[in-house]
Amino acid sequence: MPLHYVAWRKALGEWNCEFAEELFYAWGGRPTGEIISTLNEKHGLRMPVESVARRKEEFYFAMLPELKVVPEVLEHIEAQHGRIPFAVVSGSARDSVTASLETLKLLDRFETLVCAGEYTKSKPDPEAFLLAASRLGVVPKSCLVFEDTEMGIQAATAAGTTPVFTSRASASIF
């Protein structure tokens, strides 16, 4: 999440659009286009959603070598890989999620990815978590969800999973 915030600040800075860090984390899990549209309304701007989203991703991809894994999440993945299935649920586009996991050398650990554009209702709606559980072939109540935002915790809870708050996670991991 910290690298995403830096990318947001750079992309939005080109439009003189403020995006407080507190608001960024409060909106964590929302798709990029939804965030830009909401910021347009909030600030009376007309930022082109597609080009600002593309610019944000360009900044993020440029910073990928700086990406760090959340130690507690990595410990769980390493201890349980091959014993239980894993999924990523993210408000980011699939190419961004895939690039992040490839950078961390973790892509092969996940059976499925649920990314922006693959579900219709963003967090705090539970749809994305329910889709991930379905793709994994497990019941939601058997899922442990690592989340980094309050909206993600709400969505995970509404899906019937067990959420674990971690302030530095880069995505929702089952």
Summarize this entry quickly:
The protein has 174 residues and is mainly α. The protein has helices at 2-13, 21-26, 32-43, 49-62, 71-80, 94-103, 127-136, 150-158; strands at 87-89, 112-114, 144-147, 162-165, 172-173.
Describe this entry's structure for a reader:
Helix content is about 50%, strand content about 10%. By secondary structure, the protein is mostly helical. The longest helix is centred in the first third of the chain and has 14 residues, at about 50-60.
Descriptors:
174 residues, mainly alpha, DNA polymerase, domain 1, Rossmann fold, 2 domains, 3-stranded mixed β-sheet, two-stranded parallel ribbon, 8 helices, 48% helix
What topology does this entry show?
Elements: H1 2-13, H2 21-26, H3 32-43, H4 49-62, H5 71-80, E1 87-89, H6 94-103, E2 112-114, H7 127-136, E3 144-147, H8 150-158, E4 162-165, E5 172-173
Parallel strand pairs: 1-2, 3-4
Antiparallel strand pairs: 1-5
Helix pairs in contact: 1-4, 3-4
Q: What is the count of distinct domains? A: 2
For the report, how would you describe the main beta sheet?
3 strands, mixed
Tally of helical runs = 8
The CATH architecture category of the largest domain equals 3-Layer(aba) Sandwich
**Span from first to last CA?**
17 Å
The percent range for helix content is: 40-55%
SSE arrangement, N to C: HHHHHEHEHEHEE
Mass-distribution shape: globular
- Strands of the biggest beta sheet: in what spatial order? 2-1-5
